[in-house]
Structures are given as C-alpha cells and as structure tokens.
Write a structure and sequence with these properties.
This protein has 12 helices and 9 strands. It has 308 residues and is α/β, with parallel strands linked by helices. It has 2 domains: 11-135 and 289-304, Aspartate/ornithine carbamoyltransferase (Rossmann fold), CATH 3.40.50; 137-288, Rossmann fold. Helix 2 links the parallel strand 1 and strand 2. Helix 1 crosses helix 12, helix 2 (58-69) packs across helix 12 and helix 5 packs across helix 12. The radius of gyration is 19 Å and the shape is globular.
C-alpha cells in the first residue's frame, strides 16, 4: 500500500483511496499498540524532525510517541529555544537541519501555507501538524478513524461540527474528509463564528440553534473557542456563549436519543462542553487521543515507504 502524494499537507489534496489506505493502516497499528511490546522496527533508519513554531501538547506528544513506536530517530525543535527566536528565517532553519540528512519534517506553524512553502523548497517529506487557520489533516484522519470505529462506517453518517468554525483548521479538514467519504455535515454556532461563504464553498448546511443540530446528528464534534485567533470580540462573553451554545448533560438528555460527543482538545470546560459531558458516557474524546497515535503512525509509515 502506498499514497498518491509525497507529503501530507492537507485533506483537500488527498484522494479517497489515500484516506482509506491511511485508515486501514491505522487499524493495523492500533492492533500493534494493544500488544505487550508496542514498538516495531518499521522506520528504524528514518530521521524525523518535529518542527513546532506554535504551542502544542497533544499533537506534538502524539507524533513523538508515534515516531518512537516506529523506531524512528527524532529531533524536536521548538521556536522559543532556537535561532528562529533571534530572527532566522524558516527556510534557513530547515536547510540547516536538513544538512544533517533529515528524511521527514512534521510541522506546526501559525502561518497558513507554511508547510506548503517548505514542500516546494526541500526534499524531505512534509507532514502538516496544523497551519494557521488552514488545515490540520491528521486530526481529521483520527476523527474519521474514531467515527468509523464507533459506527462501522462514514458513508451516510450525520455529523454536526459545533463551535468556532471561523478559526478552526480542524473544522475545515473534517469537512473536506467527511464529505469525500460520504458523510452529511451541519456546522453550528453563533453567526459571528461561521463564515458566510461556507455553504456555497464547502456544501455544508448551517444551523444556528445547537439543540436542532444535536437532534439531527449521530455525532457532534465540538470545537474550542479560539480567543487567541480573534482580533475583536465576536460574542458577548464566555458565560453567554455557554448559555446559548454550550453542551451539558441536561441538554443531551432532552434530545430523546443518544449521540456521540467528540472534541479535538484542549477543552474549555464550562464553555463549549461541561465536564459531565466531556467525561460522561456520550464522550469518545479519550478514544480520539488513543487513536491519534495509530493514525500518525500510519501516516509516517506510508510517507516514509512511498516509492518516489
């Protein structure tokens, strides 16, 4: 099995066959992770640079663990302790590290398009771990893997993506992936947090009433309010947001049906999700975290072994 692309820059560029290959490979690696010995020698001679220009906990640790499980050699780079903090350009930084013969770069950057820029200038395979408000492809893949594991399918699944759609790279990657795989999507949240073009450009339905969105869906992927990306106030207060759009146990129990709750993390408890939902029986949030390692193992393995 191999992918049609040298890099994983975004879901938008993947074919449905690529997605199916990644998800099936991830299932094999998840089986490996259930064994007493969780390490395999698949990438023993591969050197991977983790290049994180933006703060991250779950994604960075998940990639590092995936790399270690595959026996890869890893280099971890954070901007605060590097020459980039002194003004070194992105391309200079990477060229300096590539002179050490790095095979792959896992990159997170606050600028949309940064991984695409790298892919045009260096020979290593690039994995986008999140670029600005553009895409977060491995999060979408692990979301899809978790949905398929829960429901046995993606085709025809009704998915509500709820929250800060405007600033969410997870929302964009999820929409690209799930529509490619035949799921139905509704986005929900305050009008100020949903792009005006989204129905026309991406073909998804918009719902401003969260309860109606929840009554319609099989699974709700709830997004964090990204205050750090908002240049101006887009709603009155976090308390007001929670009252109008927050999801709590009482709301879920009023639906008369069971739905599955997901969240890419980090959770703003008491804002978009109450703790009794995040930690409750409806939630598969910790399954998403576990599945993230298997999915990232699959991506790294497939890109490293692609016949270029």
């Amino acid at each position: 099995m191999k992918l049609s692309t040298k890099h994983l820059l975004g879901i938008k560029d993947l074919q449905t066959e690529d997605i199916e290959t990644i998800l099936s490979t991830a299932q094999q690696f998840k089986d490996v992770l259930q064994r007493p010995v969780k390490k395999v020698p698949s990438l023993r001679d591969v050197t991977i640079l983790n290049l994180f220009y933006e703060n991250s906990t779950r994604t960075r640790i998940s990639f590092e663990l995936a790399e270690k499980r595959l026996s890869a050699d890893t280099i971890n780079f954070t901007v605060s302790g590097s020459s980039a903090a002194k003004g070194e350009t992105l391309l200079d930084t990477v060229n300096n590290i590539l002179s050490m013969k790095v095979d792959m770069v896992v990159m997170r950057h606050s600028a949309s398009g940064a991984p695409h820029f790298l892919a045009k200038h260096i020979p290593a395979a690039i994995v986008n771990a999140g670029d600005g408000i553009n895409e977060h492809p491995t999060q979408a893949l692990l979301d899809a893997f978790s949905m398929k594991e829960k429901f046995g399918k993606l085709q025809g699944l009704k998915v509500a993506i709820i929250g800060d759609i405007m600033h969410s790279r997870v929302a964009l990657s999820d929409i690209y992936l799930l529509t490619k795989m035949g799921a139905e999507i509704v986005v929900a949240g305050p009008p100020t947090l949903i792009p005006k073009y989204i129905t026309e450009a991406l073909g998804v339905r918009v719902e401003y009433n969260v309860k109606r969105a929840l009554q319609w869906c099989d699974v709700a992927n709830v997004l964090r309010i990204q205050l750090e990306r908002q240049n101006q106030p887009l709603f009155s207060s976090l308390r007001e947001y929670n009252l109008a759009y927050g999801i709590n146990r009482r709301l879920l129990e009023s639906l008369g049906k069971e739905i599955t709750i997901m969240h890419p993390g980090p959770i703003n408890r008491g804002v978009e999700l109450d703790s009794d939902v995040a930690d409750g029986p409806y939630s598969i949030i910790l399954n998403q975290v576990e599945n993230g390692v298997a999915v990232r193992m699959a991506v790294l393995y497939l890109l490293a072994n692609r016949e270029n």
